[in-house]
Amino acid sequence: MRNNTIKSTVLYLLALLTFASVMGQQDPNRAFYRYTMNLVNPAYAGATIGVEGTKGPQSSEVGLNIRSQWVNVEGAPESQSVFFGTPMGNNLGLGVSIVNDQTFIENSTSLNIDVSYRLQISAFTELYLGVKAGANSYDANLSGLMTFGIGSDPSLSNIDGSFKPNVGAGALLKGERFFASLSVPAILSNDRLEREDGIATYASGKAHIYLAGGYDFELSKGILFKPSTMFRYVEASPISIDITAAFSFNNRVEVGPTYRYDEGIGGLFIFNASNWINMGYAYETPYDNEISTQSNGTHEVFIKLIM
After folding, report:
1. pLDDT at residue number 296
2. Where are the beta strands (DSSP E) in the chain?
3. Rounded distance, CA 5 to CA 74, Å?
4. pLDDT at site 294
C-alpha cells in the first residue's frame, strides 16, 4: 500500500516535470535523426541518403517513425511521423510529411509539402536547396490542468485546434561518403502553452535550427563506421546535441550507441531486409534517476521503403 502511494507520488511529479519542461519548448528528438531528416529539412526531398542498400539518388522513399518517451510515465511525449520523397526530374524533388506529437495535455499535428532543387557541384558532390510549406494544428485539453493544480489564463479558451500556415527552408551538401545539413523547418511562430508562475498561458513557439553531419569510413571490405551528429538550437532553451557511432556490416545490418548531451544514452539497430526495405529499433534511457527508475525508457521504431 505504502509502495503504491510512493509510486503514485513519483509518477505525479514526473508528469508535472514533463509538463513544465516540454510545454512550449522544443520539438521531439529522434534517435533515427539521420534517417528521418525529411521531417526537418525540405532539401532532402528526392535525395535518398543514410541507410545502406538503397537504389541510388533517384529513388523514391516512404518512411514511418514512432517514438514513445518515458514509457509508463503518464502524459510522457509520444510522436508519430510519416514522410515521402521522390525525384521529379529536371533536378527537382518533392516531399510530403505528416507529424503528430502528444505531450501531457497537448496535441499538435503538422502537414507539410517540400520542394528541393539539386545543383551538381562536382562528379560526386551535390547541393540540395529546399523550401517547406504547410500547416500546423495545435490543441490542448485544458481540463487536464486541474489534475496538477495548474491554473490557466482566461484567454486559453480560444484554443480551437485550427490549422495555421508555416514555411521552412533548408540546405543539404551530399558527397559520396558524407553529408552536411542545415535547416529551419518552421519559421513562422504559432501559439502554444507555456507555464509561467504556476499559470498556463499563451506563448509563441520558437523557431528550431538544425545542423547535422556525418561521414562513412570504410574500415574493411563490407564494414563501415558511420559517425554522425545533430545540433538543435531553440531560443531560450539548452542546445540539444545528438551523437551516433554506428557500424554497418555488408550493407545488411547497422548497429551502434547513441548519446544525447546531458540527457541520456542508448543504442540503435537497423536491418536492411532487402534493397527496398529497412527496419530499425532504438532504445534510450535518461540520466535522471527519478525518470529512469519509474519508466521503461524510450522506445523508437523506424521503417523505410525504397522504390
Report:
1. 82
2. 61-68, 78-89, 92-103, 106-120, 126-140, 151-152, 163-174, 178-184, 191-196, 199-204, 208-215, 217-220, 223-234, 240-249, 253-260, 264-272, 277-286, 298-306
3. 15
4. 72
What confidence score (pLDDT) does residue 73 get?
Answer: 76
**Residue corresponding to grid cell 502528444:** 102
b/e for 116-155, b at 16 or more Cβ within 10 A?
A: bbbeeeeeeebebebbbebebbbebebebbebbebebeee
Q: Looking at residue 275, what DSSP letter applies? A: S
Contact 14, 294 (CB under 8 A): yes
Give the dihedral sign, CA 286/26/8/31.
negative
pLDDT of residue 83: 96
Query: For the domain bounded by 2-306, which CATH number is listed?
Result: 2.40.160.40
Whether 85 has a pLDDT exceeding 80, the answer reads yes
| pLDDT band, very low/low/confident/very high, at 300 (cuts 50, 70, 90) | very high
Check pLDDT > 70 for residue 82.
yes
Which residue blocks in the chain are alpha helix, DSSP H?
2-22, 289-294
Q: In the numeric block, which cell numbers belong to residue 107?
A: 496535441
Q: Across-strand partners of 46?
A: none
Q: Which residues neighbour 7 within 8 Å (Cβ) at sequence distance 6 or greater?
A: 294
Q: Which amino acid is at 43?
A: A
Q: pLDDT, tens digit, for every residue of 14-26?
A: 444 444 444 444 6
Which sequence spans correspond to the domains of the chain? 2-306
Query: The pTM is what?
Result: 0.85
pLDDT at 129 over 60: yes
Rounded-to-integer distance, Cα 141 and Cα 31, Å: 28
For residue 144, give the 3-state DSSP assignment. helix
- Give me 160's grid cell: 480551437
Cα–Cα distance measured from residue 26 to residue 182, given in angstroms and rounded to the nearest whole number? 17
Q: Which long-range contacts (CB under 8 A, 24 or more apart) does 286-290 make?
A: 286/70, 287/262, 287/263, 290/10, 290/13, 290/14
What integer is the mean pLDDT of 132-155? 68
CB 295: neighbour CB atoms within 10 A?
19
